[in-house]
Amino acid sequence: MHLLLVVVIMMQALLAKEVPKICHYEGKDYKPGEKFLYKYFEMECQQRPNGISVVITACLTKFYQR
Question: Does Signal count among this protein's keywords (predicted)?
Fold first, then answer.
């Protein structure tokens, strides 16, 4: 019975853990879906099931385009 109680408490702690809702990139904050420029790249803040991340969506120079 005590083991079951410990497992339930641990699961509640894991589920209560919040994932970030803002991308922090180069000292600035961006909301999910927000696009921004960084050097030669267009970046986007994306919400994913396991958290939030910054993804390169476009390269803005002809040299890097395929």
Answer: yes
